[in-house]
Write a structure and sequence with these properties.
The chain has 249 residues and is of the alpha/beta class. It is built from 11 helices and 8 strands. The protein binds phosphoenolpyruvate.
């Protein structure tokens, strides 16, 4: 079964390092039936266009401004990354929500801006440890979905991937059990069904992110309820990332 494998580089690698990486990844993953998406820093997107445009590897940005253009010094717009051939953009990553104080209203606006500019969205949702310990994870994720997807039409959902990324599992090596992930993907599908339709709930692509690596990727990707994984740290290790991208699931 075809899976979606997303690599989030975060603020890592230089453009030259990425150039070598992209060339190697394109060669090493040739023939894979999975959808491979790499999201390097903005400064690497020109190189991505040079190396990856027209290849089997998709690429995207890690963020965009919610504004279209104008007096927003330091910001990058959706049309700028679209012009560089980016197909995807990550929106609402917990590092942006936490460290850059992006709330659901901003996330919602970013999704609308991305879709209006023909970008596909990787929407990250997920609870922190305290919320999980207080048994409020389900309620929390539901509310994120309700607020983030406000005003998004059902036909636009085919351009949205939901990434369930429990904050406490990102970059920590802490493993979430497959049962816990299954419960959350069921909940996400039910909420999408409630907000849109049964078809939308069934059809929405959901990936899991949070310390995915060599010890757990097979266990995760062998399940039908999961459409793929989002990988941070390990995607920087090209041989390991290649292994995950090439596998037949
Ligand atoms: C992420 O940053 O989206 C992520 C999943 O990171 P890691 O794989 O390092 O936990």
């Amino acid at each position: 079964m075809k899976k979606i494998i997303i690599g989030n580089f975060k603020m890592n690698t230089t453009p030259s390092e990425f150039k070598s990486y992209a060339m190697a990844l394109a060669t090493k993953t040739k023939g894979t039936k999975n959808d491979v998406i790499v999201c390097p820093p903005y400064t690497h997107l020109g190189t991505a266009k040079q190396i990856l445009a027209g290849s089997h590897i998709y690429y995207g940005a890690q963020n965009i401004s919610e504004e279209e253009s104008g007096a927003f010094t330091g910001e990058i717009s959706a049309s700028m990354i679209k012009d560089l051939g980016a197909e995807y953009v990550i929106v609402g990553h917990s590092e942006r929500r936490g460290k850059f104080k992006e709330n659901d209203k901003v996330v919602n606006k970013k999704i609308k801006t991305a879709l209006a500019n023909g970008l596909k969205v990787i929407l990250c949702v997920g609870e922190n440890l305290q919320t999980r310990t207080n048994k409020q994870a389900a309620m929390f994720v539901k509310k994120q979905l309700d607020d983030d997807l406000k005003g998004i039409y059902e036909n636009e959902l085919e351009s949205v991937i939901i990434a369930y990324e429990p904050i406490w599992a990102i970059g920590t090596g802490k493993n979430v059990t497959v049962t816990e992930i299954h419960k959350m993907t069921d909940l996400i599908r039910k909420e999408i069904e409630y907000l849109y339709s049964e078809k939308a709930g069934r059809g929405i692509n959901i990936v899991y992110g949070g310390s995915v690596g060599l010890t757990n990727y097979k266990k995760l990707l062998s399940n039908d309820f999961l459409n793929g994984v989002m990988i941070g740290n390990i995607c920087l290790e090209i041989d390991n990332f290649t292994l995950i991208c090439r596998e037949n699931y």
